[in-house]
Amino acid sequence: DETEFRNFIVWLEDQKIRHYKIEDRGNLRNIHSDDWPKSFEKYMKDVNCPFKIQERQETVDWLLGLAVRLEYGDNADKYKDSTPDGAKNTDSTAKNAEPLINLDVNNPDFKAGVMALANLLQIQRHDDYLVMLKVKRLTQEAIAKASQSKEGLPVALEKHILGFDTGDALLNEAAQILRLLHIEELRELQTKINEAIVAVQAIIADPKTDHRLGKVGR
Questions:
Q1: How far apart are CA 117 and CA 132, in angstroms?
Q2: What's the CA gap between 122 and 139, in Å, rounded?
Q3: Could you please report the per-residue DSSP string of 92-104?
Q4: Secondary structure class of 128 (helix, strand, coil)
Q5: By the 8 A CB rule, do 7 and 31 touch?
Q6: What family is it from (predicted)?
């Protein structure tokens, strides 16, 4: 229901997200206005939502995830020691060692994260978001290259400027990693180009000489 949807967005902003000052929420609160979609689209841009206004389900999931993160941030001391009811009897050491064991794939924040990552990596949309996690975009050459052990120095991601903001810290970090990997591939390509230039210069700098023809060249 359109009215319920608009009321839901206003409730999230008023009670949890609170991105706008109270006096600036008038256009969003005017849910019966014909201009409400434009106000909502502006609101999505202002909170850095990665989805379009037509992607309503993804937008709802993402805004709920944002609200949860902000709620936790405002009450960190209250929630930091809380554990899910089903996990109270689990071994905390094993839980810390395997953080993905208790991952809730039905969590709206998780769904929104998958959709945002799919947009970032330009992976084709699918009705089942779990299917997108199985998409294999690597070529055989890339897989073979990735399987080779490679030593290197640790990289401090915070020292590398991404240049844009996805609105999510984890997605920003993933984008930084992808950009650094892309830069590494460009450097390898430049190295190969330099080697080719050197090889050509070696041939040009050492021509064969034919004294009988009075010419220098090949």
A1: 10
A2: 16
A3: HHHHHH-TTTT--
A4: coil
A5: yes
A6: Belongs to the RTRAF family.
Compute the Cα dihedral for 16, 80, 77, 156 and give only its sign: negative
The DSSP code for 125 is: P
Distance separating alpha carbons of residues 18 and 70, to the nearest angstrom? 9
The answer, yes or no, to whether residue 69 has pLDDT greater than 90, is no
Closest residue by Cα to residue 25 from 15, 34, 16, 14: 14
Radius of gyration for the chain, computed over Cα atoms and rounded to the nearest angstrom: 27
Collect contacts of 52-61 with beta carbons under 8 A, ≥24 apart. Answer: 55/115, 56/5, 58/111, 58/112, 58/115, 60/8, 60/108, 61/108, 61/109, 61/111, 61/112, 61/115
- CA quadruple 178, 104, 119, 51: dihedral sign: negative
In the block, tokens 């590398």 appear at: 160
Name beta bridge partners: 215: 210
Q: Which tens digits make up the pLDDT trace of 96-123? A: 555 555 666 677 777 777 777 777 666 6
13: closest CA among 78, 64, 74, 57? 64
Q: Which residue has the tokens 């019966």?
A: 32
Amino acid (1-letter code) at residue 189: L
Handedness of CA 42, 65, 52, 176 (dihedral sign): positive
Helix (H, G, I), strand (E, B) or coil at 209: strand
* Domain extents in the chain: 2-81, 105-147, 159-205
3-state SS, residue 194: helix
